[in-house]
Design a protein that fits this description.
The chain is an alpha/beta fold. The strands form 9 sheets. It has an 8-stranded mixed sheet with strand order 4-3-5-2-6-7-1-8, sandwiched between helices. Strands 9-16-13-10-12-11 form a 6-stranded parallel sheet, sandwiched between helices. Strands 19-20-21-22 form a 4-stranded antiparallel sheet.
């Protein structure tokens, strides 16, 4: 609008305050209008003016947004949306240098040539526009404004080394996203600003940056269009862009427009390159710093004198050539392309019969292609809208509702939401057009609500993808050198400044596994710094914790509740293990030492409590000579020694030495020398750990379940495992040591040479089936012959015949209880036998030797006992003959056991047997004190050593069995001759008297009385 108003061109580089100057000038008038290149910038200026004058007098008009109060005085618009013919006192066009833009330049050029305020007109832009403005507007005045701060070139830097408050510029969506992802991993995140974002999303993203939640901004060249942000450094990730037709390098003035965003007000700024961008040439960098650029010579132009007679006439007017040499015809824009496409549609041409319809078609063609899809699809949409509007119609509500409903969804990723936002912008634009809808205000509200929902969802997705709030907060606090506040809940979860950072397991911190690379380093650094006080508090609490809160695992770990705080390592000897603590270096040496002392105290007390009998044995200064040496061997064996490994040592011990050892609860069993108290589950569990440590076992074997008499033999277990676990391997199973000794006592009463069957008591104490018991016996060195016979009920006389043996057994058990000595209390719990009887049962009569050789003093009694024991076995065999058989007899399986001469040795390593002569390496051929006793005399009272030795079975030794004594048939019961008295246990009156036995005098009197 031409007139005598003042026309002023305010030119200069960025950060000169041009926009601020224009706002002040406009507010000095009653009315005014300002045009901006981006709706984002328009929204920013609108918010500023509203804050000054209030919303009732300020209007905002863009392609997709229209806020027009009834008493609007100041209009803030995008350049394309500026209402024509407004008689405002003041008019301003910002970024006027966009007249040279190949896509939108013709719009700015038209405003430059034809838009005026009645009192004042301002054109704001770069110095490069001085010549074209002077040529097109001769009456213009120029005002030069200098930059308020310095702008320097910083060269090339890696993204990981970018300083805080940096904006990194990319020229494609993919490039922007990739940079933001990298900044998230290395710097905690970045805000994202693109021209395609809605104002709501853009403002939310800018708020992240402006509020300091992130220190980095990734943007397109949209930030070069007047967006005022607190940026200290601008880095170009590329120096070329796609302009809609081809990739082209950015001109120095275009680079300067973007670089000038660095440094606001009096704060200096810098610019540079990063990523794959090549460093700027010195001439280009100097031109940007000094604001010297090649002046613009040509401006894009398209005729505003349009002919609406026909579609062809309209196209000709749009393609007319400018007459002024400063102007150049703009390339074909989207609206002209859509018009040409529809001009080939006969149905559209048939409706454009007058100027009004042609004008309507042109208005419809000017709907921007926000969706960015093909020209054909965009033209088809425009054609549908034109068909509805032709002839005074409107777009149907139901059709528009269906279009919007497909878009109104907030699920999906960033790209999906961005496309929906682009689609809704089309319908937002349609709702802004006058007379296109039945209820324009309703649909404006609907489309605005959908855009807001999509904008919020997009902001949320952008933040989730490109911002790690946790790392960002921690980095900021670390840089501020402030004390970080850490909290640890009862689950060990650690939060620092309210952000989850990992878990604290005992005194070791495990960062959140979702963090990677530089993010993980930052996370751990901040976490350990914040956890320093927590480590000390936790160490104090641990040091004062009771032993009940600490425990060891079967693999040697040391636990405080559910947290691993250390592990056991081998020490100087098995009973003195050392500890290795699990404490982070960041916790400090004081914490580590405190934890180590507490764990060492715990394990020392644990060993002292569970191995007290063994430690007392170790400290007994009264033990001398062979007894002390044997005690040392037992301590080395952690309270358990397979008898065959100490056969000679046991043989060499005299009765005094034995008595001294028995006072410590040591039992000289037939198979094992052991301390019964150490067979309990707790000592066994610790013993296996100590033994594994001392022997360098890689994977510690676990203790068998407590309370079981037999367990399956461990496959591939280390040699010696069965003994250390309190068991002896025999066949496919292992039997507990103390129960094996009880079984040995029962086996002594049987005819091991002639053969015998398993008694119910044998199966009962082992808890085995007959088949399992047979395998066990074979593991102990017996032969097991399987057979079948008719199953019959026991004869009524059978209990009467067995009664004497039961009475004798009960009487001996009573005698054993009455004679139990204090030194044998541990053995009395499992055996209920006095010390002297234990010697007779366990030491002098190995069960792997035939029964007549079982004891030294009772060979004759054993023979009588064997004969009596044979009678009940023979009686059932004859019963089927005497019982009438009316139906086929039910068959039963039975086993006959006889000594096989060789036992399968234990040790846990199946297949590696230490066969050192008969069972237990020869232990079955001797009693506990040797073949002839300590004084060289045969202590068995002249009785033969039994059926297990052929040379003695013939009675060849002095005092031996009378010659001619039948030895029994092979595989059957021995023939009985004469009247002899049999006993299930050796007579104690013939036992060598132990001087330490409190019943020694009584026993000596009984022996002399005979």
């Amino acid at each position: 609008m031409a007139g005598a108003s003042r026309i002023l061109a305010v030119l200069g580089p960025t950060n000169t305050g041009k926009t601020h100057y224009a706002i002040e000038r406009m507010l000095g008038y009653r009315t005014g209008i300002m045009g901006f290149p981006l709706r984002l910038l328009a929204r920013e200026v609108y918010d500023k003016i509203v804050a000054i004058r209030g919303p009732s007098v300020v209007a905002l008009v863009t392609g997709e947004e229209r806020i027009v109060p009834p008493r609007a005085k100041y209009w803030i618009c995008t350049v394309e949306a500026m209402p024509p013919g407004m008689g405002c006192d003041f008019l301003a066009i910002d970024e006027i240098q966009l007249c040279a833009d190949p896509e939108r330049g013709h719009v700015f050029t038209e405003r430059l040539m034809n838009s005026r305020g009645t009192n004042e007109t301002l054109f704001l832009g770069a110095d490069t526009m001085r010549g074209p403005i002077k040529a097109l507007v001769p009456e213009v005045e120029f005002l030069r404004r200098e930059r308020m701060s310095e702008l320097v070139y910083g060269g090339s830097k890696k993204i990981s080394r970018m300083p805080p408050r940096t904006a990194i510029v990319g020229f494609s969506v993919d490039n922007v996203y990739a940079i933001a992802e990298l900044l998230k991993r290395q710097k905690g995140g970045a805000a994202v600003v693109m021209g395609a974002l809605s104002p709501r999303t853009r403002n939310a993203q800018v708020a992240l940056y402006q509020n300091g939640e992130v220190d980095y901004l990734v943007a397109t060249d949209a930030i070069g269009m007047g967006l005022n942000l607190d940026i200290d450094h601008v880095a170009f990730s590329a120096t070329s862009k796609f302009d809609g037709q081809r990739m082209r390098p950015l001109a120095p003035n275009e680079l300067a427009q973007i670089a000038g965003r660095a440094g606001r007000g009096m704060s200096h700024g810098s610019f540079g390159v990063t990523g794959d961008a090549r460093p700027l040439e010195d001439e280009v960098a100097e031109a940007i710093m000094e604001h010297r650029f090649t002046p613009l010579k040509k401006l894009n132009w398209r005729s505003s004198q349009l002919q609406f007679g026909t579609v062809e006439a309209l196209i000709r007017s749009l393609e007319s050539v400018p007459e002024n040499e400063v102007l150049v015809r703009a390339r074909e824009a989207d609206d002209l392309g859509a018009l040409k496409f529809l001009s080939r549609d006969s149905s559209v041409i048939s409706r454009t019969t007058n100027a009004q319809s042609v004008r309507l078609l042109w208005d419809v063609c000017r709907i921007p292609d926000f969706r960015g899809i093909s020209h054909g699809e965009h033209a088809a949409l425009i054609g549908s809208i034109f068909e509805y509007l032709h002839g005074g119609g409107v777009v149907p509500d139901d059709w528009l509702a269906r279009q919007i409903k497909r878009i109104d969804r907030t699920d999906g990723d960033i790209d999906t939401l961005s496309k929906r936002l682009a689609f809704i912008r089309t319908w937002t634009y349609v709702s802004q057009r006058k007379n296109w809808l039945h209820d324009e205000s309703h649909w404006r509200g609907v489309t605005r609500a959908v855009e807001d929902r999509l904008s919020d969802a997009l902001h949320e997705r952008l933040t989730q993808r490109f911002v790690d709030r946790r790392t960002s907060v921690l980095l900021r606090r670390l840089k501020q050198k402030e004390a970080l506040l850490a909290e640890v809940n009862d689950k060990g979860e650690v939060t620092v400044e309210g952000e989850f950072v990992g878990r604290l397991d005992g005194f070791r911190f495990t960062p959140d596994k979702s963090a990677q690379g530089a993010e993980a380093k930052t996370l751990k650094s901040a976490s350990l710094q914040a956890l320093a006080p927590q480590f000390h508090l936790r160490a104090d609490r641990f040091y004062n914790a009771p032993d009940t809160e600490i425990d060891f695992t079967e693999q040697g770990g040391l636990m405080w509740g559910d947290a691993a705080v250390g592990k056991l390592v081998a020490g100087a000897d098995p009973l003195n293990p050392q500890v290795e603590v699990f404490v982070d270096d960041a916790a400090g040496a004081d914490v580590a030492q405190k934890v180590e002392r507490r764990l060492q105290h715990f394990i020392s007390r644990k060993v002292q409590a569970l191995f007290e009998p063994l430690i007392n044995l170790q400290k007994d200064e009264e033990l001398t000579g062979l007894a002390r040496g044997f005690a040392f061997r037992l301590v080395e064996g952690l309270g358990l020694l397979p008898r065959h490994t100490v056969m000679q040592e046991v043989k060499d011990l005299d009765q005094e030495a034995r008595g001294a050892l028995r006072k410590h609860g040591i039992r000289f069993g037939q198979f094992t020398v052991f301390m019964p108290l150490l067979l309990k589950p707790a000592p066994t569990r610790l013993r296996l750990v100590l033994w594994s440590l001392a022997n360098g076992v890689q994977e510690f074997p676990e203790a068998p379940p407590p309370g079981l008499v037999t367990v399956p033999a461990a496959k591939d277990a280390p040699q010696g495992y069965d003994t250390m676990s309190g068991y002896r391997e025999a066949g496919e199973r292992m039997i507990r040591i103390d129960m094996l000794e009880r079984l040995a006592d029962m086996l002594r009463a049987e005819d091991s040479r002639g053969g015998f069957e398993a008694k119910a008591d044998m199966l009962s104490i082992t808890g085995m089936t007959l088949e399992q018991f047979a395998d066990l016996m074979q593991g102990l060195g017996y032969r097991a012959e399987k057979g079948e016979r008719a199953k019959v009920k026991a004869a009524p006389e059978a209990p009467k015949e067995e009664a004497p043996a039961e009475v004798e057994a009960k009487s001996e058990e009573a005698e054993a209880k009455s004679e139990a000595a204090p030194a044998a209390e541990a053995e009395a719990k499992s055996e209920a036998a006095p010390a002297a009887e234990v010697e007779a049962k366990s030491e002098e009569a190995p069960a792997t030797e035939p029964a007549p050789e079982a004891t030294e003093e009772a060979s004759a009694a054993q023979e009588t006992s064997a004969a009596d024991a044979a009678a009940p076995v023979e009686t059932p065999a004859e019963t089927p003959v005497e019982t009438p058989v009316e139906t086929p007899a039910e068959m039963e399986v039975f086993y006959t056991f006889a000594w096989g001469g060789r036992a399968r040795q234990g040790g846990g390593n199946r297949g590696q047997r230490r066969g050192q002569g008969g069972a237990q390496g020869g232990a079955s051929t001797q009693n506990a004190d040797g073949a002839a006793g300590q004084d060289g005399q045969d202590r068995r009272g002249g009785k033969p050593r039994g059926q297990g030795r052929a040379g003695e079975r013939s009675g060849g030794k002095p005092g031996g069995r009378p010659a001619g004594k039948p030895g029994g048939k092979k595989g059957g019961r021995p023939q009985q001759q004469g009247s002899k008295t049999y006993s299930a246990r050796p007579p104690k009156k013939e036992k060598q008297i132990d001087p330490d036995n409190p019943f020694a005098a009584a026993l000596m009197g009984l022996k002399q009385g005979d």
